[in-house]
């Protein structure tokens, strides 16, 4: 537990503004740095097709990151999102393709299951980290039951959506802007969004003001489920066939993306735009940048960890500079 | 009745042994009593690996809210490779190999603590970032080389006396020592005090940061030891050898009756929880349940137990 120092008078007047600005810019700066490095190493990729290829997988990762962000809004964490994405991919490649109505019903049930999980966590005051670790077994088990061997086929309409080439601006960038805008508006600009963030910041205050913490957490977890489903649909639209382990890396990527984007573990401090930028940065850095630097793929996972540590170190440095 | 409730509140770990016995009976009822002893022997040999990391994780979790080590799977994987490479298949190098695994794990634990302390980030993110890096180091270092353990070491991990594995006896002794360390030493009492209220502990003169360092480093070293033992038992190091211990190490702490919020721990429960989880797998296996359903049921049962136990124990 780190102690929280109370700000001194002069800090209250001018310090925090500068610090807050620097901190808010950090996700954008990290993204620009990685993009700049790639452009320097290989200028040809800075084109319509270059971005489409480089950022293809950023769309499902960004959606999973936003899902994780909703869990972190109320100081929870979802360690099952990767297994969940894998399961939904299997549903999409089987039922959603063969029997669309059954498929849609299963997906709705998935979102309802997430909402119920949020309610359970709240009612029994359970540690979300343990519950979701257990749930990751559940989703993984269901995925293997549904699709023991890799296979299935994504619905054609999903492939069409993910293969769409909008004029001038590549699809991943359009999608990222839409995802960020929707999440930002919902969480940062609506009154209930403020309540949801307050649920993570000061649950007692929200409760005393007459809002139900049970509903807040249930709503947030329903959104985790919803964005998890969307992430899987985007992923299956790209890969075209499913595998129970398709989403395995997404748990770690989504947590890293939220933190990279300026989110905090406690206090309801999250940033939807930062989270999407964080997801884009991780996608670029861990796959493209290393490829251009000719670093063997063994170190791709490490790159995620190192970027995370560098950004967190920068954040600490900014906070300390603000204090001086 | 109230005496039973009072006893359960004082010794919450009893429940885990009751649950373990129930699933064991469930398994032998199906086979008509056949293989009951063999089932216990297997359960003891497999539970050992969960107990070693479970005890480490328990000390970390006891440090208080947010303290957790998510780097154990990567740590175990790397240490298993380090141990097998150092031993190089020679019985004469076993001691060096074990020392190397312990050292490797200790270094991982120390690095975890340094990240938490220097960057002031929650342990979950620090250990997660560290595990990314450790995992990559392991892939680059291990490079798919399946190095066999020395025959003497592999045999050692499989020795049994009258159906009781030698490792199980050693780890039972270790668990007793850990229990004594937790309840009767200055170190253990400090860990509990920090978990109950870190500020109060600091004001009471507990050296909070050195204790936290020691705890993370010890948990790392135990992960390293576990990696070496696993590589001996399963006859070869492997990047993914520790994967299941992410959930298992945390689950046994919770099932054993320790508080996830910290400040309250018990060592017997780690053994009980580990036996329960292993016997649960055995039971599902004897029923001939497939991999998917087995995962599903394990997950459902773990979530159900945690939900039934509840987060905040009344009358703590």
Break the fold down into its secondary structure elements and pairings:
The complex is a heterodimer of chains A (324) and B (316).
Chain A: H1 9-13, H2 15-41, H3 48-54, H4 58-73, H5 81-93, H6 95-98, H7 100-123, H8 128-146, H9 156-163, H10 171-189, H11 191-201, H12 203-208, H13 213-239, H14 250-260, H15 272-292, H16 300-323
Helix pairs in contact in A: 2-15, 2-16, 4-10, 4-13, 4-14, 4-15, 5-8, 5-13, 5-14, 7-13, 9-13, 10-11, 10-15, 14-15, 14-16, 15-16
Chain B: H1 2-10, H2 14-31, H3 36-62, H4 72-87, H5 94-119, H6 123-142, H7 151-156, E1 160-161, E2 164-165, H8 166-184, H9 186-196, H10 198-203, H11 208-233, H12 245-255, H13 268-286, H14 291-309
Antiparallel strand pairs in B: 1-2
What is the number of independent domains of chain A? 1
Give the count of helical stretches of chain A: 16
CATH architecture of chain B: Orthogonal Bundle
Q: Structural class, from helix and strand content of chain B?
A: mainly alpha
Mean residue pLDDT of chain A: 87
What is the total tally of β strands of chain A? 0
Tell me the series of helices and strands of chain B, N- to C-terminal: HHHHHHHEEHHHHHHH
Oligomeric composition of the shown chains: heterodimer
Radius of gyration of chain B: 19 Å
In spatial order, strands of the major sheet of chain B run: 1-2
What percent strand of chain A?
Answer: under 5%
Low-confidence residue ranges of chain B: none
The gross shape of chain A turns out to be globular
Can you name the CATH architecture of chain A? Answer: Orthogonal Bundle
Largest sheet of chain B: 2 strands, antiparallel
Jot down its keywords.
heterodimer; A: 324 residues; mainly alpha; ABC transporter involved in vitamin B12 uptake, BtuC; globular; disordered N terminus; B: 316 residues; two-stranded antiparallel ribbon; 14 helices
Structural notes for this entry:
The complex is a heterodimer of chains A (about 325) and B (about 325). Chain A has about 325 residues and is mostly helical. Chain A contains 16 helices and no strands. Chain A has a single domain (about 45-324), classed as ABC transporter involved in vitamin B12 uptake, BtuC (Orthogonal Bundle), CATH 1.10.3470. In chain A, α10 (about 170-190) packs across α11 (about 190-200). The radius of gyration of chain A is 20 Å and the shape is globular. The two termini of chain A are about 25 Å apart. Chain B has a single domain, classed as ABC transporter involved in vitamin B12 uptake, BtuC, CATH 1.10.3470.10. The relative contact order of chain B is 0.20. In chain B, about 75% of the residues lie in helices and about 0% in strands. At the A-B interface, α8, α14 and α16 of A face α5, α6, α12 and α14 of B.
């Amino acid at each position: 537990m780190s102690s929280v120092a109370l700000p001194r008078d002069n800090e209250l007047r001018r310090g925090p503004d500068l610090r807050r600005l620097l901190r808010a810019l950090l996700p954008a700066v990290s993204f620009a740095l990685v993009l700049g490095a790639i452009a320097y190493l290989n200028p040809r990729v800075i084109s319509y097709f270059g971005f489409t290829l480089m950022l293809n997988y950023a769309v499902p990762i960004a959606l999973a990151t936003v899902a994780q962000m909703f869990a972190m809004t109320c100081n929870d964490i979802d360690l099952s999102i990767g297994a969940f994405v894998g399961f939904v991919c299997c549903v999409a490649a089987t039922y959603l393709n063969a029997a669309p109505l059954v498929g849609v019903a299963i997906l709705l049930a998935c979102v309802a299951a997430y909402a119920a999980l949020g309610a359970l966590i709240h009612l029994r005051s359970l540690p979300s980290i343990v519950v979701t670790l257990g749930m990751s077994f559940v989703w993984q088990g269901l995925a293997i039951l549904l699709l023991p061997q890799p296979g299935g086929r994504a619905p054609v309409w999903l492939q069409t959506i993910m293969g769409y080439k909008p004029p001038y601006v590549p699809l991943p960038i359009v999608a990222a802007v839409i995802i960020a805008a929707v999440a930002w508006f919902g969480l940062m600009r609506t009154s209930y969004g403020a309540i949801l963030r307050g649920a993570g910041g000061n649950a007692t205050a929200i409760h005393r003001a007459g809002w139900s913490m049970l509903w807040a957490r249930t709503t947030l977890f329903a959104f985790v489920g919803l964005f998890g489903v969307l992430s899987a649909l985007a992923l299956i639209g790209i890969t075209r066939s499913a595998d129970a382990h398709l989403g395995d890396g997404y748990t770690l990527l989504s947590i890293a993306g939220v933190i990279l984007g300026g989110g905090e573990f406690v206090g309801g401090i999250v940033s939807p735009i930062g989270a999407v930028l964080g997801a884009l940065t991780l996608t670029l850095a861990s796959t493209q940048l290393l490829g251009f630097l000719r670093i063997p793929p063994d170190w791709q996972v490490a790159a995620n960890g190192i970027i995370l540590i560098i950004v967190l170190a920068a954040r600490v440095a900014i906070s300390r500079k603000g204090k001086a | 009745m109230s005496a039973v409730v009072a006893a359960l509140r004082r010794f919450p770990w009893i429940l885990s042994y009751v649950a373990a016995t129930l699933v064991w009976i469930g398994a032998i009822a199906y086979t008509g009593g056949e293989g009951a002893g063999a089932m216990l022997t297997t359960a003891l040999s497999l539970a050992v690996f969960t107990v070693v990391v479970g005890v480490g994780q328990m000390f970390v979790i006891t440090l208080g809210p947010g303290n957790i080590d998510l780097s154990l799977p990567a740590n175990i994987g790397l240490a298993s490779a380090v141990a097998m490479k150092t031993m190089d298949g020679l019985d004469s190098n076993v001691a060096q190999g074990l020392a190397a695994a312990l050292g490797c794990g200790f270094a991982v634990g120390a690095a975890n603590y340094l990240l938490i302390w220097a960057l002031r980030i929650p342990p979950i993110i620090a250990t997660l970032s560290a595990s990314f890096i450790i995992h990559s180091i392991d892939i680059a270092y291990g490079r798919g080389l399946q190095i066999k353990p020395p025959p003497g070491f592999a045999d050692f991990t499989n020795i049994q006396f009258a159906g009781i594995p030698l490792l199980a006896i050693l780890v039972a002794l270790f668990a007793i020592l850990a229990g004594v360390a937790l309840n009767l030493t200055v170190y253990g009492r400090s860990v509990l005090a920090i978990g109950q209220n870190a500020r109060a502990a600091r004001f009471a003169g507990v050296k909070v940061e050195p204790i936290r360092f020691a705890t993370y480093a010890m948990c790392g070293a135990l992960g390293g030891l576990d990696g070496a033992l696993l590589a001996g038992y399963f006859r070869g190091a492997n990047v993914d050898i520790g994967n299941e211990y992410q959930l298992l190490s945390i689950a046994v702490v919770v099932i054993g009756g320790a508080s996830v919020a910290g400040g309250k721990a018990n060592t017997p429960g780690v053994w009980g929880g580990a036996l329960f989880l292993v016997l649960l797998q055995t039971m599902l296996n004897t029923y001939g349940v497939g991999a998917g359903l087995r995962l599903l049921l394990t997950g459902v049962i773990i979530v159900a137990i945690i939900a039934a136990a509840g987060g905040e124990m009344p009358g703590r």
